[in-house]
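Hey L., structure's done. Input below.
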Amino acid sequence: VGAMTFGGSLQAPPGLFKDLNDEILGDAIILNGKQLFIDDYIIDELSGAEKVLNQPVKHPRNPILVSDQPWETVWHPNHGSVMYDQEEKIFKMWYINYTSDLKRQQLAYATSRDGISWQKPLINKADGTNIIPGFSADNPPCVFKDSAETDPNRRYKMLYGDNPDGTSKSLSTHAAYSPDGLHWTPEPQNPLIPHSDTLSCPYWDRRLGRYVAYLRYGPPNTRIVSRVESEDFVHWSPKVTVLRRTNLDAPLATQFYGMRIMPYEGVYLGLIEAYHTETLKPIPHDKPWTDRKNIQLAFSRNGLTWSRVVSQ
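Output:
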């Protein structure tokens, strides 16, 4: 009878489960890293404690970014993207500045050391502004820094809405790349995704090993949230709707302008731009919520099935 031999050590590498066997595997929940108690996924029983949704508090120095330059229009700093650059140890912001005729959206740039005091650096030497040269769009861009990208010229990526022929018939979602976040080159194969009004939120999903973006349903555009995926940021899957309105939204006629996503400790957190009805008339004193937006919290464990966090 031959003996079984091993070419390596029998010692298990650090972090592997040493007491997991066939008998208990079917009931085991395999956890890696930290876990948020945002749901009851890993909670069997809760006694002598309660989960509380804390109310965020606005910073006393708000607003922290205002229109204080002659080239900034009356629409004030508009939709944009904010990130903390771990390599450069600085906050970066890309925000919208409308052209003087309010027909096109320019991309302006600001930086901050603490996220509170912001500077508008001179990056457009031709006109002496903080407006990124050579870029305009019909709908606001959403920018992120891609840590998985190996091509330095594509380190920063964005999705934005545009209409190549200047009419609503060509409205669609486009991509662009940049080595530094300031000099942008459109993707040659634009447009890439059917039109999505307002922000399209893309990011690199480490768990899936692909790009994911959350955007509007459609066309036609409806204020609910859909999702697309891509392996190369060029070829995208069809839209899949992941967040619809429910009875919770009926009292204020709430609709979703979009949802920003943040993967965090085993779950996905979503910040919903919840828009409460629409009116072109003066807002009644007894309905201050009319024609306003607030932020609502959602979460998911797979990026497709979302739950909204309700304060009890």
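The mean pLDDT is 88. The first helix runs from residue 22 to 25.

-- N.
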